[in-house]
Design a protein that fits this description.
There is one protein chain. With 244 residues, this protein is α/β, with parallel strands linked by helices. It has a single domain (16-243), classed as Vaccinia Virus protein VP39 (Rossmann fold). The protein has six helices and seven strands. A seven-stranded mixed β-sheet has the order 3-2-1-4-5-7-6, sandwiched between helices. Strand 4, helix 5 (172-185) and strand 5 (186-192) form a beta-alpha-beta unit. The longest helix is centred in the N-terminal third of the chain and has 22 residues, at 67-88. Bound molecules: S-adenosylmethionine. The site of S-adenosylmethionine (SAM) has 17 residues, from loops.
Length: 244
């Protein structure tokens, strides 16, 4: 089966419930912490967390776009990702691709409703959505207790390096620079997933050990932790957690 090969990073996001499974935590565990979701994409975690009184910021380079373009991009990317998953790699959507896709549309709708109100052009703009791209973030040193980073790092390495990108834009050097930046802005870093995306060959992502060692070389306690987000391949269910 040919690998999924994206020309650009997909604006494709999870619900807050999926985030809880990914990070093996309950949203309420984050009370009292300052949290960064990087990249946030169209995940609904920031919206739900803010509703629960959690101090969280979501950043993404696509937050530079106006709302209508963000919606069009999100809808197009869900359709394209689901088309590719169905035709090339159905396991990525678990046992029920329809409900998988509908969860992604729910997350996009929630993000867009919240972004309309609280994003940079919203009437209640409060800085919760920030236009920013790794490896250079516009945040002060150690301004967050924890940064959550899902489905960008590792996932969008080149296909030949265990990811889904047609290009080598996000190579190992990019990943190491991104780690240095995340370690500058946050005391704890959580990364998911850290597997190669081909379910026929489940394996730890080739960048995962170098990233872990880089975090350790910066004095962080970095380790693999089990995730409870079930995508049908047990070898996939690990995150990297690094803390000071
Ligand atoms: C698949 S989404 C992940 C969203 C969310 N974290 C999740 O797990 O559902 C990947 C996101 O990475 C963003 N992205 C692309 N280039 C980036 C960069 N250089 N730094 C940070 N985010 C980037 C894209 O705009 C996209 O929204």
């Amino acid at each position: 089966m040919p690998a999924i090969r994206f020309p650009h990073v997909q604006f494709f996001g999870r619900t807050w419930r999926e985030y809880e499974q990914i990070w093996n935590l309950r949203l309420d565990d984050l009370h009292g912490k300052r949290v960064l979701d990087c990249p946030c994409g169209p995940a609904s975690f920031v919206s739900e967390a803010r509703r629960r009184g959690i101090d969280i910021v979501g950043c993404d380079p696509l937050f530079a776009l106006p709302l209508a373009q963000l919606r069009a991009r999100g809808e197009a990317d869900i359709a394209e990702t689901m088309r590719l998953i169905r035709t090339q790699n159905p396991m990525l959507a678990g046992n029920d691709p329809e409900s998988y896709a509908s969860e992604k549309r729910k997350a996009l709708d929630e993000l867009l409703n919240d972004f309309a109100l609280h994003g940079p052009s919203g009437t209640k703009c409060d800085g919760r959505y920030v236009n920013a791209a790794l490896p250079t973030l516009p945040f002060a040193d150690h301004s967050f207790d924890v940064v959550l980073s899902a489905h960008f790092l590792f996932t969008y390495a080149a296909v030949e390096d265990g990811g889904m990108m047609a290009t080598r834009e996000f190579d190992l050097d990019f990943h190491l620079r991104a780690m240095t930046e995340l370690a500058r802005v946050a005391r704890e870093i959580r990364l998911y997933p850290c597997y190669g995306v081909d379910p026929a060959h489940p394996m730890r992502h080739p960048y995962a050990d170098p990233v872990l060692h880089h975090l350790q070389s910066m004095g962080m306690n970095a380790r693999y932790e089990r995730s409870t987000y079930d995508q049908g391949v047990p070898e996939w269910n690990f995150s990297i957690v690094a803390s000071r």
